[in-house]
Amino acid sequence: MHVHDDPHTDRHTDLDVDRLAAELSAGSRDALAEMYRRWSTLVHTIAFRALGDRHDAEDVTQQVFVSAWNGRQSLRPDQGSPAAWLVGITKHRVADVKTQRYRSHRNLHAVAAVASTEPSQEHDDWAEKLLLVSELERMGDPRASVLRMAFMEDKPQEEIARTLDLPIGTVKSHVRRGLIELRRRLEEVDRVAP
Known about the structure:
This protein is mainly α. Helices cover 76% and strands 0% of the residues.
């Protein structure tokens, strides 16, 4: 029996991996597909462990391979394996998602700070809630519905996506942009108020 005939040997030899890297660098979509087949599970696992969210991990996995294709000229087999290169891209994409999460969290707190001052009376509290609802209505759907479900009904983004039949990325985008818009509107109202 030859070594290559042994089913227990690793079929991803260094020569095979180097060839794959060279083909990807040269623009082979087949090489990209083969890299996806071999290492997408690794990328997804790293993203999922870092982010704790299946949808975010799926998004990161897709972004990693798009980035790998767009940056294929930066792949240098003499400086590390394609798998290590993909892990590096994955870490950058995970950091991007964490940054987006931080910004969304910061914007939510900023909106909450603008929308709710310490009310001295129950009437003031209701007036602020009505103002917030009014500003949401002015936004129109689906953004208003997404924000209402996310922050007034405290629904997870995955549930919002299913309920409104929207891709999860679209829901995340509406939350991020909607919070920025809502904060701007509430700051304008606050400046005009006596």
